[in-house]
Amino acid sequence: MIGLDPKVLGSGTTLVTTETVDVLLTMAPVTFDAGYIVALDGPAGCGKTTALTALKSQCNLPVSCVSLDPRSSDKDVIKQLHSAIVGVPVSRRALRTELLGDLRLRLAASPRIVIVDEAQNAGITALEMIRTLHMDPTSNWHLVLSGAQLDERLTSEKMLKSRVMHWSRFLPLKDNELVAVLTGMHPMFASIDPALILNANRVACHGVLREWVKLLTIMQALTARGEIAGRSMLERALTATTGRVVKLPR
Fold first, then answer.
1. What is the DSSP letter of 174?
2. Residue 218 domain boundaries
3. Which of 45, 71, 77, 134 is the most exposed place for a label (fewest CB within 10 A)?
4. Are 78 and 133 in the same domain?
5. Each residue of 143-198: pLDDT tens digit?
6. What is the CA radius of gyration of the chain?
7. Which pTM value belongs to this model?
């Protein structure tokens, strides 16, 4: 089990890794040593960001992270990469060729891991530039790409896709995984009947971890007011997150 910053999942929370995350943590170092790319693919809220946090926690190298906006231009992507690695904002006057040249030198200078989150938002030209930087003979860095429908997005950039050695596929958690993750994640979930958790999952959360993190935040607030974890609290939290009155089956 890997402890996380309380800001990520709330006070007193522990991340219980799923099989997908366990395999990622095992395969990432192997992939990096071979000079290939790690890719995380899956819909929003299914654990990619949490898995990246776990990956960063076990890395012995500096980690630089960027998260791409859907409106990011090719130059925006390079500017974000440069800012993440250098640690200071890029001048508006900086030319793309200058940034690429400086990135090439900096990425060759010392080993590091670069995580590009929401990578499906990168344009074809930006993806090609990232591939070129990674394949540079002087390259001394490791690349992790993460995003929704990333496999499909990289179909148009076959050379980059061919350099992915390990794919981690994140999907909504199945019933047995969900109960194991939630009851290990926080004592509040451990105190609730697993059958009640599964009922709530079928009604509203559908195996999406992020929805359960929202519920936990509300349940912690209700606990602070003196309420006890159970059916009533779970129904109130579900009502708050869904915007409709929720009554769980008995």
1. P
2. 175-242
3. 71
4. yes
5. 999 999 999 999 888 888 999 999 999 999 999 999 999 998 899 999 999 999 99
6. 21
7. 0.86
